[in-house]
Amino acid sequence: MKMEALRRLNDCITYIEGNLEGEIGVEELAKLAFTSKYQFQRTFTMLTGYSVAEYVRKRRLTLAAQELMSPNVKVIDVALRYGYETPESFSKAFRKAHGVSPSQVKKTGKALKAFPRISFHIQLKGEMEMNYRIVEKDAFQVIGVSKVVSTVNGENHQVIPTFWDEVNESGVDEKIAKLAGNQEYVGVCMDFDHPNERFTYFIGAEDLANVTQSELEKREIPRNTWAVFESVGPMPHAIQAVWQRIYSEWFPSTGYKHAGGPEFELYLPGDVTQEDYRCEVWIPIMKN
C-alpha cells in the first residue's frame, strides 16, 4: 500500500514537471494520487515542507533562470512562458527567489539558486510503532485567539511558535484556561486557503464552562471520527516528527483518508521541555 502511494506521488511530480509551461490544476494532481484535493495538498505540504503552489513556483523560476543564461532569450518571453503576465511581476518573483533581477543575470552571469525536482522514496528505518486510537467525538466549542498564517517558505513554522510565546507571555493562556475551565490547550489548524497558501491557527481550550460572553474568539469543531496519535518527548521536535509519520507512514498504510476540516494538537499539563512530555495530534478521518 505504501509503495503504491509513493508511486502515485511520484506520478504527480512527473505531471508537474511536464506542465511547468502550462496550467497545473490541483484537481488533476489529486486524481493522479487517488485522493481528495484537501488531502493531497496537506500530504504534499507535510512531506515536502512546501505547498503545491510554492513548489511549482520555485521549479518554474529555476528553469527560467537556466533559460536566461542563453544570450538570445528575451526576458519577456521567459516571463510569459512560465505564467507571468508582465515583466514586472516576473522580475519581482525572480528577484525574491534568486536575489538578482532577470536583466542582471543576462548582463553579468551572476550565480543563481537552483531548486531541484523532488522525488519520493520509501525508507525502511525499523522505527517504533505509532500509538494511536480511533475516537468518535461530538461537535465541541473552543475559545481562544487566532492568527492567519502563511505557508510560503515555511513561514508558519516560525510564526506559530512565536504566536504561542506571545499568548503565554501576555497571560492570555491563563485567561483562556480560567474561562474555559480546562487546563488542556489546543492548537487548531483550520480554514485552509490552499490557493492563497495560508490557514488560520487557533490557540485555545475546549469550552467546558459554556462561556456565553467573552472578548476571546469562540469556534466550533464539528463532529468527527478522529485518529488520535500520541507524541512523547520535548516540544516542538517530538510532535513535528509525529506529524511527518502520520502523512508519510500512517495514511499510506491504512484504509483511512483525511476527512477535511480542522485538525489539532492537544497539549496536556506538564513540562513541554521534558523527554517524557505527552501530547496528542487529532486528525479527522474517514474510510477510503
Automatic annotation (TrEMBL):
Gene3D superfamilies named in the record: Homeodomain-like, Regulatory factor, effector binding domain
SUPFAM superfamilies: Homeodomain-like (SSF46689), Probable bacterial effector-binding domain (SSF55136)
SMART domains: AraC_E_bind, HTH_ARAC
InterPro entries with a match to the protein in the record: AraC_E-bd (IPR010499), GyrI-like (IPR029442), Homeodomain-like_sf (IPR009057), HTH_AraC (IPR018060), HTH_AraC-typ_CS (IPR018062), MarA-like (IPR050959), Reg_factor_effector_dom_sf (IPR011256), Tscrpt_reg_AraC-type_HTH (IPR020449)
GO molecular function: DNA-binding transcription factor activity; sequence-specific DNA binding
Protein name per Swiss-Prot or TrEMBL: AraC family transcriptional regulator
Keywords, ordered alphabetically: DNA-binding, Transcription, Transcription regulation
Residues in HTH araC/xylS-type domain copies: 10-108
Domain of life: Bacteria
